[in-house]
Design a protein that fits this description.
Elements lengths: L2 H10 L3 E6 L3 E6 L2 E7 L7 E5 L2 H7 L5 E3 L10 E4 L7 H17 L3 H7 L2
Amino acid sequence: MTRDEFNQFCQSLPTTSHVVQWHDSDVWKVGGKVFAICNSQDAPVASITFKTSKMDYEILRGMSGLRPAPYFASRGMTWIQRYDYSELTDNQLQQCIAESHRIVTSGFSQRKRSELGL
Protein backbone atom coordinates (compact mmCIF):
# COMPACT_ATOMS: atom_id res chain seq x y z
CA MET A 1 0.00 0.00 0.00
CA THR A 2 1.42 3.34 -1.04
CA ARG A 3 0.97 6.58 0.87
CA ASP A 4 -1.66 7.72 -1.65
CA GLU A 5 -3.56 4.44 -1.34
CA PHE A 6 -3.37 4.73 2.45
CA ASN A 7 -4.83 8.24 2.34
CA GLN A 8 -7.61 7.23 -0.06
CA PHE A 9 -8.58 4.29 2.13
CA CYS A 10 -8.57 6.28 5.37
CA GLN A 11 -10.66 8.99 3.73
CA SER A 12 -13.27 6.37 2.81
CA LEU A 13 -13.89 5.47 6.47
CA PRO A 14 -16.76 7.25 8.30
CA THR A 15 -16.25 10.71 9.84
CA THR A 16 -12.48 10.86 9.46
CA SER A 17 -10.25 13.91 9.39
CA HIS A 18 -6.71 14.34 8.10
CA VAL A 19 -3.82 16.44 9.31
CA VAL A 20 -0.15 16.55 8.39
CA GLN A 21 2.03 16.63 11.48
CA TRP A 22 4.97 14.91 13.18
CA HIS A 23 7.62 15.43 10.51
CA ASP A 24 5.30 15.38 7.47
CA SER A 25 3.24 12.35 8.53
CA ASP A 26 -0.30 11.83 7.26
CA VAL A 27 -2.31 11.46 10.48
CA TRP A 28 -5.91 10.22 10.30
CA LYS A 29 -8.32 10.82 13.14
CA VAL A 30 -11.90 10.06 14.04
CA GLY A 31 -13.57 12.26 16.64
CA GLY A 32 -10.22 13.94 17.27
CA LYS A 33 -8.48 10.63 18.12
CA VAL A 34 -5.70 9.15 15.97
CA PHE A 35 -6.37 5.78 14.37
CA ALA A 36 -3.70 5.61 11.62
CA ILE A 37 -0.45 7.29 10.62
CA CYS A 38 1.64 7.09 7.45
CA ASN A 39 5.12 8.42 6.91
CA SER A 40 7.21 7.50 3.89
CA GLN A 41 10.00 10.10 4.08
CA ASP A 42 11.66 8.75 0.94
CA ALA A 43 11.57 5.16 2.21
CA PRO A 44 10.88 2.41 -0.34
CA VAL A 45 7.88 1.27 1.73
CA ALA A 46 5.43 3.65 3.39
CA SER A 47 5.56 3.27 7.16
CA ILE A 48 1.98 2.70 8.38
CA THR A 49 1.04 2.68 12.05
CA PHE A 50 -2.31 1.58 13.49
CA LYS A 51 -4.02 0.54 16.73
CA THR A 52 -4.85 -3.14 17.31
CA SER A 53 -6.60 -5.39 19.77
CA LYS A 54 -4.36 -7.10 22.33
CA MET A 55 -4.71 -10.45 20.55
CA ASP A 56 -3.91 -9.01 17.10
CA TYR A 57 -0.97 -7.12 18.60
CA GLU A 58 0.56 -10.39 19.82
CA ILE A 59 0.11 -11.99 16.40
CA LEU A 60 1.21 -9.07 14.24
CA ARG A 61 4.31 -8.06 16.19
CA GLY A 62 5.98 -11.34 15.28
CA MET A 63 5.39 -11.04 11.53
CA SER A 64 8.11 -9.92 9.14
CA GLY A 65 8.00 -6.22 8.25
CA LEU A 66 5.85 -5.41 11.30
CA ARG A 67 6.88 -4.28 14.78
CA PRO A 68 5.46 -2.68 17.90
CA ALA A 69 5.09 0.97 16.94
CA PRO A 70 7.87 3.19 18.28
CA TYR A 71 6.67 5.62 20.95
CA PHE A 72 3.19 4.06 21.24
CA ALA A 73 4.23 0.53 22.19
CA SER A 74 6.89 1.78 24.59
CA ARG A 75 4.04 3.36 26.56
CA GLY A 76 2.05 0.14 26.78
CA MET A 77 -0.27 0.90 23.86
CA THR A 78 -1.14 -1.81 21.35
CA TRP A 79 -0.04 -0.10 18.15
CA ILE A 80 1.73 -1.85 15.27
CA GLN A 81 3.89 -0.33 12.55
CA ARG A 82 4.42 -1.76 9.10
CA TYR A 83 7.93 -0.50 8.40
CA ASP A 84 9.02 -2.77 5.55
CA TYR A 85 7.60 -5.27 3.11
CA SER A 86 5.50 -7.60 5.21
CA GLU A 87 3.40 -10.75 5.09
CA LEU A 88 0.25 -8.60 5.14
CA THR A 89 -1.49 -8.07 1.82
CA ASP A 90 -2.87 -4.62 1.06
CA ASN A 91 -6.36 -5.98 1.74
CA GLN A 92 -5.28 -7.29 5.16
CA LEU A 93 -3.59 -3.98 5.93
CA GLN A 94 -6.82 -2.17 5.03
CA GLN A 95 -8.70 -4.50 7.38
CA CYS A 96 -6.23 -3.64 10.16
CA ILE A 97 -6.72 0.09 9.56
CA ALA A 98 -10.52 -0.31 9.52
CA GLU A 99 -10.31 -2.27 12.78
CA SER A 100 -8.17 0.50 14.28
CA HIS A 101 -10.92 2.98 13.33
CA ARG A 102 -13.51 0.69 14.97
CA ILE A 103 -11.45 0.26 18.15
CA VAL A 104 -11.03 4.02 18.53
CA THR A 105 -14.72 4.77 17.96
CA SER A 106 -15.80 2.01 20.33
CA GLY A 107 -14.17 4.00 23.12
CA PHE A 108 -16.46 6.99 22.54
CA SER A 109 -19.52 7.66 24.62
CA GLN A 110 -22.93 7.02 23.06
CA ARG A 111 -23.42 10.77 22.87
CA LYS A 112 -20.18 11.34 20.96
CA ARG A 113 -20.90 8.43 18.64
CA SER A 114 -24.32 9.92 17.94
CA GLU A 115 -22.83 13.39 17.31
CA LEU A 116 -20.43 11.83 14.79
CA GLY A 117 -23.22 9.86 13.13
CA LEU A 118 -21.74 6.50 14.07
